[in-house]
Structure formats: C-alpha cells, structure tokens
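Extended Data, panel c. Modelled sequence:
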Amino acid sequence: MDLKAYMSERKTLVDNFLLSAATGEDVMPSSLHRSMRYSLEAGGKRVRPVLAIAAAEAVTGKQAQDIPGLMAAACSLEFIHTYSLVHDDLPAMDDDDFRRGRPTNHKVFGEAVAILAGDALLTYAFELLADPKYSGGMDSARSVAVIREIAYAAGSMGMVGGQVVDIESEGGGEVDFATLEYIHTHKTGALILASVRTGAIAAGADGRQLDALSRFGTHAGLAFQVADDILDIIGTQEETGKDVGSDIARGKKTYPALIGLEESKLRAKELADAAVDALSIFGAEADPLREIARYIVSRNN
C-alpha cells in the first residue's frame, strides 16, 4: 500500500476536523485562543489520531467518516498531545526553543499564556468527546470507555507519570533498564497505545481484536520513543523541526545512553516487527497499521 498517500489523506481529515472544532481567535480571550491554535496549526504528522483511525478501519473495514464519533475521539488525542508538547517545551520542563519548525508556544505568547493554553487544550479534548455535535452517533457505552481510556493514558498512570519519572531521572545518576522502560512506555507509549485502543473501541472491536491491537500499540509506542531517542542523536533540526542533542545536554535517560546507538536501532526494529506480528489475525484491512509500525523506526522526524 501507499503509506504516504494514506497518511496524507487521513492527516487532511484530522487537520480539517481539528481546525473546525477549535475555538476561533476572535473569541475572547483572543490571546488564549490564538495560542491554542498556534500550536494546533503547527502541523506535525498527526500520528496518534491517524493510528486511531487506522485501528478503527482495521476492525470495521469502513472509512473513518462512516464510523460514528470516530473523528472526535481521534482528534481529542491530538488536542492532548499538543497540550503535552506546549508544556514539555516550557523552561521548567525541557526548555526548548523550537517545535515543528517554529518557535515554541511560550517563546511567542509568554510562559503564562502557554501554560494556560496547554490547560485549555487538555480540557477541550474532553469537551469534544462529550459534545453530541462532534461525537454524536457513538454508542454510549463505547463513548464512556473511550473517555476513560484516554483519561487514564494522559494522567498520572500514563503520560504525566512517565514525564515525572523522566524529570526525576535527569542528571548524572544511574537508571536501570526497568526505569527507562517505565519512562518510555508511559511518557510516550501510553498515549500511542490509547490511540490504537480508542479507535478499536470506537469501532466496536471484539475481545480478540482489542487484544491484538493492544499488543500492537504497546510495541509500536515503545518503538516510537526509542526512535525519538535515536533521532535526538543523528537527526538535524531541519529534519526534526525541534532542538536536537537536548537529551544528552540535560542528562536524560535514553536507550542510546544505556545500551548504545546501534543496539538501540536493533531494539527499535525488533519492536516494530513485534507490532506487525501482533496483527496476524487481521487481513489487508490492517496494512496501514503494519506500514505505520515500519515507518516509525525509519522516519527522520
């Protein structure tokens, strides 16, 4: 299949939905809404909503537009991901100057507005999930399950928990492999796993399908962060759209720091292969997921 065409088509769906659902800049407080839209409009690959869409399409064999409530569920993940990037870039966190090829939110709008924009993006994700205008048509039990799935992955047991352990592990102290895997599977992997599971739940996956897609999401999520660790060493700012080499500068615990660059590359490929293997119960309808897993470890941004 043509992954580039698939990603482009689904990204267009996501972009159109995000910008139609986001509050306009002319609505008070305009500075806050400009800040929110600035980061939403910065682009990015939209990997998380595309994963949700691909998982739902694998379960149903239908197009995203024909699955009730799917786009709201998928795009809520991007609101949450965008908020996390805004906060990650703050001086108190990673202190980055560039994101997706543009100055980071706090560099343009100031730290206070950036913090509040992140708060508002997170909150709006759940408003979107509960708004019948956008999520209407999804079975109520599925809707509740999706909300819980995303909330759990974004909170202290998922992304935020991983971020805290990541911050606490910075510096010269030794970190064992179990702690490194905890950081990676929570800080990045939790929301990627939730993206896949969200699409599956929204589409009405049965237990066997959900189990297979969960295993896919677990492996793909970890592979994504290992690949990010590698890109922080071998990538360029032009390719990645963000500061590179910052993990080393801050003493962050990464796969290359613990097991070396070449071994990290092998680990990323093993994880991508395991993700693909998890989809053995699906036919060609899961090919986009298979290709995304391979893309995760071969990308340059």
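The chain has a mean pLDDT of 92. This feature is highlighted in the accompanying rendering.
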